Amino acid sequence: MVVSSLASVCGNLLLLLVLLLNKELRSDTLGLVLSFSLSDLALGLSTIPFGAHNSLSQPSGYPSTGAFCQGSGFIFLLLQTSSIHSLTWVTVDKFTEICFALSYRSIWTPGRSRAVLVLVWLFCLVNAALPLLGFGSYVYSESRFLCCPSFTPENRYFVVLWMLLGIVAPILTMCSLYGYIVYVASKQARRGTFMYNELHCFYVPANNYLRSSIVMITTSCLLVCWLPYISVCLYETFTGQQSPDVTSALSAWLVLTSAALNPWITCMTQ
């Protein structure tokens, strides 16, 4: 977790620095890129160090009902959800830019991009606030070393709602869009194409598109980090049984590690 925290902080700071220094990389969806980058940076500065500290100190009888644990669980859920939803909409932007290139400017306007960003954060705030209002609950998980949602049968409605709308739907959307992007790239790779600017016109060989396809596949593989976490949480929720401590800890670590991988994948796909 210490290594993941350092990688998350350094990677996201680097991504923010690149966007700050290169105006060519700024687009109408810059707000969405900043959204998931800042969410991952905040995870690397707050939740991951908190988990690392607890895994070393092994606190017993942690007050789950205390304001600190409830606030920590709220921040954990808020940053997790905002990161994956912002990343999903960045994927939608890339899909639109590639597959609807001629009408891209009319589809992704600055106003619509800002509206999407506001709606994403409103959804994430409401979703994270539900356990504080009595629909679901935050508890300290000794196996995950974090304050997180309670994955018990009593909270199954909240867990299912959060998993479906907050995690599974964005993941399936990203996988589907990246799959179609790879399909389009493979079609282009069989024939190559011409690229041009104000001064030159040049031929782009097929291997450039194949390289882009590999990058897209690598990006979609990042989502594998979420699969063990989803499986463990749903298992605990519907069976009422606790998963082995090692399984819970590793699945939570994989999800938190995705915060360190996101900025590098984003830089590769620019």
Automatic annotation (TrEMBL):
Principal cellular location given in the protein's record: membrane
Keywords: Cell membrane, G-protein coupled receptor, Membrane, Receptor, Transducer, Transmembrane, Transmembrane helix
An annotated Gene Ontology molecular function: G protein-coupled receptor activity
Secretion signal, residue range per the UniProt entry: none
TM spans (from-to): 6-22, 29-50, 62-79, 115-140, 160-185, 209-230, 250-267
GO CC list: plasma membrane
UniProt keyword Metal-binding present: no
Domain G-protein coupled receptors family 1 profile: 11-266
Entries under InterPro entries matching the protein: GPCR_Rhodpsn, GPCR_Rhodpsn_7TM
Record carries keyword Membrane: yes
Topology of this chain in the membrane: Multi-pass membrane protein
Cellular location(s): Cell membrane
Name used for this protein in its record: G-protein coupled receptors family 1 profile domain-containing protein
